[in-house]
Design a protein that fits this description.
By secondary structure, this protein is an alpha/beta fold. The chain has helices at residues 19-33, 67-79, 93-102, 107-130, 139-149, 153-159, 174-182, 190-195, 213-225, 240-243, 261-270, 285-292, 305-309, 321-332, 340-349, 352-371; strands at 2-7, 37-42, 56-60, 83-86, 133-134, 200-204, 231-235, 253-256, 273-276, 297-300, 314-316. The protein has two domains: 2-171 and 351-371, Rossmann fold (3-Layer(aba) Sandwich); 174-349, Glycogen Phosphorylase B (Rossmann fold, 3-Layer(aba) Sandwich), CATH 3.40.50. A six-stranded parallel beta sheet has the order 8-7-6-9-10-11, with helices on both faces.
């Protein structure tokens, strides 16, 4: 098959560090290894090369504007090319409330953001309804998609209902990323080695409201006051307005900017506990990688985390620093440094091989539906 994978994203696709972009690249690599021809296009930078006569248009709903997807889908419809969309969706109302609090939004800013949210929802509804098949990463995510689309009875009537769906789970790259780290083939630069404590809690992701690092710092402060010696290591790009009230110099915190996946994974392998008490993860790729490395990990319980991790995670309420501290304390007390059963759970259920097995079935199914004249 010839497959066009498209994203609308401000993030990098080449040498990607963010979850949606890395997922798109991972799927493309596995599809290519199976003999498919795959083109990845960031619609914010260039148009799809429609002269390639694609069999499939696969939209990956990254964090950018939705309009470029809708333009690509309309062209695909004119050419008779079926469209599938990886939904990557979860409601953001809680995130907006937190942003208003941490960024001290005034009434004008609140009103401005409240006017943006309905338009974002409408564009997302259209993206989903214009697709021939939806690809949520969990059943619970599909329920959230249905709730979003059902808000607009007019659109739902116009399109004749929600498109069919197939769950394609998020995946971890064991062969290229996890296994080399488990085998000890990755080294950290000496200047980073010198700054790392033997015992540390790691959190990876842009330092921002959604990732909730301020509450993580507050939770760690509770533990430090009790005598916990673990350092907190935060890896990711800093959002200045979010962290301006943290007195970094007085706390045992190591800040590290965005880093290539191999360095991040080696930090994960060495950490005592991985912590991702985000307000929104579906679930996060970084958390899946920490689980794949067998590490004790703390996760929020607010989206699809339990569907993926079952009883392996130490769960918390991400809106409560007390709850995060309790989960961290339990995880730090764990005698297990590498849980092979947990690692095998991720390997057996969330590899790119399994994800693409399901994805190929979805591609074939939507091509057959189109060939029979289905919408």
């Amino acid at each position: 098959m010839k497959i066009a994978i498209v994203l609308s994203t401000l993030g990098a696709v080449v040498r990607a560090v963010s979850g949606s972009e890395r997922a798109a690249v991972g799927l493309a690599q596995e599809l290519t290894e199976r003999g498919h021809e795959v083109w990845i296009t960031n619609l914010l930078n260039r148009s799809v090369d429609w002269g390639e006569e694609f069999d499939i248009l696969h939209c990956v709903n990254a964090g950018g504007p939705k309009g470029p997807y809708l333009g690509a889908i309309q062209t695909a419809k004119l050419l008779g090319i079926p469209t599938l969309t990886s939904t990557i969706y979860w409601p953001v109302a809680e995130q907006y409330r937190e942003m208003a609090f941490y960024h001290n939004w005034d009434e004008r800013k609140r009103a401005e953001q409240e006017s943006v949210l309905p338009e974002w929802e409408k564009q997302t509804q259209l993206l989903f309804l214009e697709s021939d098949m939806l690809l949520p990463n969990a059943e619970l995510e599909m329920r959230a998609v249905e709730e979003l689309v059902e808000k607009s009875r007019g659109l739902l009537t116009k399109y004749g209902g929600i498109p069919p769906y197939t769950v394609i789970p998020n995946a971890v790259d064991f062969e290229s990323e996890i296994d080399p780290v488990l085998e000890g083939k990755v080294e950290l630069p000496p200047e980073l080695e010198e700054k790392l404590s033997e015992r540390f809690v790691l959190c990876v992701g842009r330092i921002e409201t959604r990732k909730n690092q301020i509450r993580l710092v507050e939770a760690m402060t509770r533990l430090w006051e009790e005598g916990e010696p673990a350092q907190l290591v935060l890896v990711g790009r800093v959002t200045p307005a979010y962290v301006e009230n943290i007195n970094w110099a007085t706390l045992p915190i190591l800040l590290h900017g965005e880093a290539e996946p191999s360095r991040v994974l080696e930090l994960m392998r060495r950490c005592t506990v991985y912590a991702q008490p985000s307000l929104l993860e579906t679930p996060g790729l970084a958390t899946m990688e920490a689980a794949a490395l067998g590490k004790p990990f703390v996760s929020g319980r607010n989206a699809t985390e339990e569907e993926y991790f079952g009883d392996y995670a130490y769960y918390c309420d991400p809106t409560s620093d007390e709850s995060i501290a309790k989960a961290l304390k339990e995880a730090l007390a764990s005698p297990v440094t590498m849980n092979k059963e947990q690692s095998d759970h991720i390997r057996n259920n969330y590899s790119y091989k399994r994800a693409v097995d399901l994805l190929e079935e979805a591609y074939r199914a939507v091509i057959e539906i189109k060939s029979r004249g289905g919408e």
